């Protein structure tokens, strides 16, 4: 048992060392060059590149900023300022940011093609946003005001809205509405 644990530890240390030094890349390049000689994938591609499916249009990590960063940073900063005015900083800001990154990417012109939800908070029906201002279709501040009011009225805090978005029913493991 001790010998097995020692062997596993030794292999782990070796793998970590190979990854840290980039030796794996050198080995991969050597193998790829040899394979190219016997009609493997094109010499400027790796086996992984050859077999990789096309990237989806938009992919999000489970939490935090989507790959490629925030495309609507001005709207996001405005939202942060407006959330701070309500006392929603720290964890509450993180929850709001996560929620609206998933809903719209902070894009005030975002429209869900299947539901018709619109704007930064993805209001449905979209004209609900008019209760915050007649410029609801073009003004990020109007949309953010409506969204913050909605969250406060329905969930009390952004973290409670985010928790609902992630998993509204604890009795069903993995259940999620992905709406709030």
Automatic annotation (TrEMBL):
<protein>
    <recommendedName>
        <fullName>Transglycosylase-like protein with SLT domain</fullName>
    </recommendedName>
</protein>
<dbReference type="InterPro" id="IPR023346">
    <property type="entry name" value="Lysozyme-like_dom_sf"/>
</dbReference>
<feature type="region of interest" description="Disordered">
    <location>
        <begin position="107"/>
        <end position="138"/>
    </location>
</feature>
